[in-house]
Specification:
18 strands; 8-stranded antiparallel β-sheet; mainly beta; globular
Length: 298
Amino acid sequence: MKKEAFVFLAAMGLCAAAGTANATVFHIDEFTVTENGQTYWQDTFSDGAPPVDQVSAVVDVNLYDRAYLTRPQPQLPGPEANGKLALDTAEGFLNIGVVNPVPNLIQRARINSSMNPANPAALLATEQISVSGLFDLIEPQKKQELYSIRLTDWAEDITPQGVELAVIKTGAGNWIVQLRQAIIDDHWEPLESWALASMADITDYEQISLSLLNNPDDQSGGKEFTAQFMLLDLDGLLSAQTFTSSKRGVMYQTIDGVAYDWLRPEFTARLTVPEPATLALLSLGLVGIGLQRRKSLV
């Protein structure tokens, strides 16, 4: 193996090792998307494969291929067993995204919905959309670790928007649910938060359902999404608790005077890589550059 390749791989390894000690394994039990009250996508993680095409309209397979876009690629995170898909941040893809300019480890499955509004399989904010993820209620163990559902319209050469509803351990060590808006090239901006650790009987709940919903008849034309989450007790000893946000996240953009409102739903687990790991990656990266320059001078 070439020295520069070895240095790069070593840097990646050190970065991952420093960032994932005591990382958490989360589980998602169901991921559902509806469009105008009809099931667009539903994965119950019971057969080891993504759902079959559930769009009722006839779709040209040359225009659209129903699948997940994943990080890491190409397979879903996992393993998948007993109606649950494991999301282990320690196995995540080392990523620096358009929203988070800091390294993070991510496991993500995004529905590869069409970005062509003329395609009958496209998900548009002008339709009534709901996106829901049912997760085991697990407290993240590391600061800046989370699991979530998101709506994004990331695309090359187009400044994206994003709305996320996450269960997160904050930098201050608080266990919360948070509605967040993407601020491009900077961060996710918190819009509203709910403290889970302070809720009575929180440890008696086993599941949490996270949802993002719009209303195409409101003044935003469906481009603003409300968040909702529900605490569920599988033992039936406690009543379910439902919380709805008073704030809404925006999911549209205007580029050169043209409005884009396509949506790509996803679920994710992420862990921000702490500063020591970032420094290790940078230091070894500089060593690799030095080796490459030395080689070119020889």
